[in-house]
What does this fold into?
Amino acid sequence: MKKVIMVSACLLGLPTRYDGKSKPNEKVLNFLKSEDVVVVPFCPEQLGGLPTPRVPSEIQGGKGWKEGAKVLNEKGEDVTENFYLGAEISVKIAQFSNPDFIIMKERSPSCGVNYVYDGTFSKKVVSGMGAAVYYLKKAGYRIISEEDL
Ligand code: SF4
It folds into this structure.
């Protein structure tokens, strides 16, 4: 049976990022081409109802997503509910597609696996995970970043 791999959409070259651009990753694309797999693209921030392009957001507090975390965009608007909803729908997609593993975009407030920005919009990176990664991990899915591949 073919492996199923969910992948952050922007890593595949889909223009889902906050700036309306993509972040195609050669390593990810080459890996997926070399394997006999079914690829399931997803973008938690779009799934959470945020527009594209959108104002960039960061998880507050400098520790990534935890229960009760708050996410603000650069204008100071609270977008926590969008991040929570995007994470919840991502888990539902995983339940439907039953992935062998998931590849997600490092440092994103939704998709960061090991690192995220610290919440001050100053490009400072801290250890921690994004909202969708937190709930997908909690649901038992195996996740790696494009840098771990
Ligand atoms: S939320 Fe994830 S998939 Fe969507 S653009 Fe950001 S890093 Fe890519």
User: Anything to note?
Assistant: The chain is about 25% helix and 20% strand. Strands lie at 3-8, 37-42, 57-59, 71-73, 101-104, 115-117, 125-127, 143-145.
